[in-house]
Amino acid sequence: MQLTEIQTKLTEQGLDGWLFFDHHERDGLAYRILGFRPERHVTRRWYYLIPNSGEPRGLVHRIESGMLDALPGTKTAYASWQLQRDGLQNLLQGCRKIAMQYSPECAVPYVSMVDGGTLELVRSMGVEVVTSADLVQYFEARWTEAQLASHLEAGRRVDEVRRAAFAEIGVRIGRKQTVTEWDIKNFILDAFQGAGLFTDHGPIVGVNANASNPHYEPTAEEHLPILKGDNVLIDLWAKLAEADSVYYDVTWTGYCGAVVPVAVARVFDVVTGARDAAIRRVEQAVAAGESLAGYQVDDACRGHISAAGLGEYFVHRTGHSIGRDVHGSGANMDNLETHDTRLLIPRTCFSIEPGVYLPGFGIRSEVNMYVGEREAMVTGEVQRVPVIIS
Asked: Which residues make Cβ contacts (< 8 Å) with residue 351, sequence separation at least 6?
């Protein structure tokens, strides 16, 4: 746990402390930020307050009195609900404004881990609770140099698998063999395993109208064949099968034929133009030292699609934070699903993935961007033209 750095950030934000709370291991962020794993299943509530100065203090149940022993500071034990309330009141003594894993109106669900009843309890003790979203991003979403290296290596391997998947479709169609979305999904998963990659779900392989469902995944029971004249979207994400590695997540589209239809090519150009507009917005802001929020990146991307008359078909945010989980806990590029005011900060990564989803086909183009101290970069290959699958 980075105690000194946490206390510095609390002081900078005018907060008296950061209160961590968990029950039944619901808040994985708390364990990662505090830097410990419970030795046994958490069946009782615990609280841990890091004040902006001085020693941390905790509150634990008597039958799990050692739950926070790995952390510094004093701990008080309770058994009854009355002692639990009194103990929490004492824990918060001297605090007027604290952060918790809470998001107003659940605007940032990745951070909104604390239940409403616990918020009511803390507020009833005369304490103002604010979101810990910015703190979580700083202490959870920033990458180490080793994590950046793992991302770049995962990207190299995932890009190889992606190329092989499109090629496999072409080979099977050329040989007049049956090939389906389900076949290619399993081809990708087998290739991931052989390449030392891990993914917790996916990938997405969608043909024609299925590609217009942003979260479509073929199953053994429901899938379509891939035929000549079809549009194909492949969205694949994975990380190295090693501890503390982080994800790489990209989407490419292709056409099974020698010449891409004009309507498809037009939409592809609009989507990739929007992607590039967002990339430029990030690159220019970082180079100029300009503060840039997630919603502003979304505006740059969405504005390009709206100007082309296709705004109603772009139905999700521009991008999401990337980390140990494919959807991380940093700023999202979003002014649609939420108004994400969190700033892009150094050593964080996120996707840029605009899409246009029409009734007959969908196009999405996804890259990953990493923000360094003075520059931002796309971390993998960038699709410039549709893949010709032949």
From this structure: 249, 319, 320, 322, 333, 366, 367, 368, 369
Q: Please name the residue that has the structure tokens 């009782």.
A: 44
What does the block give as tokens for 155?
A: 């990207």
Q: For the segment 42-101, what is each residue's pLDDT rounded down to a tens digit? A: 999 999 999 999 999 999 999 999 999 999 999 999 999 999 999 999 999 999 999 999
* Chain centroid, CA 76 distance in Å: 36
CB atoms within 10 A of CB 32: 16
CATH of 142-388, one of 3.40.50.360, 3.90.230.10, 3.30.1330.40, 3.40.190.10: 3.90.230.10
Query: Has residue 390 got a pLDDT over 90?
Result: no
SS3 of residue 22 by DSSP: strand
Please tell me the total number of residues recorded for the chain in this structure.
390
Indicate the DSSP class of residue 183. Answer: H
Q: Please tell me the pTM assigned to this model.
A: 0.92
